[in-house]
Design goal:
Bound molecules: zinc ion
Shape: elongated
CATH class of the largest domain: Alpha Beta
Largest sheet: 3 strands, mixed
Oligomer: single chain
Number of domains: 2
Low-confidence stretches: none
Number of strands: 6
Number of helices: 5
Strand content: 15-25%
Helix content: 25-40%
CATH architecture of the largest domain: 2-Layer Sandwich
Length: 134
């Protein structure tokens, strides 16, 4: 992950939202971080602090982070559950593998209802803008 580029994108998007809503000054921006996204929060916060300085109206904004949970949806049986529930049941080393490489999740996790590894992961990835408050 390139936290610097990410920070610039978040700040640019927050400024766009602020303009669209006629906010002269942004007080708080809430950034959603997918739990499967390997973002270095400290590096991102540092990048945001640097990027916001050059954006009018955003200089004083506070950035808050919220972890966006990943949900699973089983294709064969339709069961939906929080990926976290499955991860909590795994040994630490398996969790670590998944954290480093989310693509391997299907090797470790199966549907708690029917046992199928054929499930879709909904959310929990990427970075989103949850709120821009003036
Ligand atoms: Zn199932």
């Amino acid at each position: 992950m390139h936290e610097w580029a990410l920070a610039e994108a978040v700040v640019a998007k927050a400024a766009e939202v602020a303009r669209a809503r006629d906010l002269a000054r942004v007080v708080e921006v809430v950034v959603g971080l997918g739990e499967l996204q390997d973002v270095d929060r400290e590096a991102l916060a540092f990048g945001l602090a640097a990027a916001q300085r050059s954006v009018p109206g955003l200089e004083e904004a506070r950035f808050a982070f919220e972890v966006e949970q990943a949900r699973c949806s089983c294709r064969p049986c339709g069961h939906a559950w929080a990926l976290r529930e499955s991860l909590d049941a795994l040994p630490e080393e398996d969790r670590e593998s998944i954290h480093l490489l989310p693509e391997v999740v299907h090797l470790y996790v199966a549907c708690p209802s029917c046992g199928s590894p054929d499930f879709a992961i909904v959310g929990g990835r990427g970075v989103s803008l949850l709120a821009v408050d003036g």
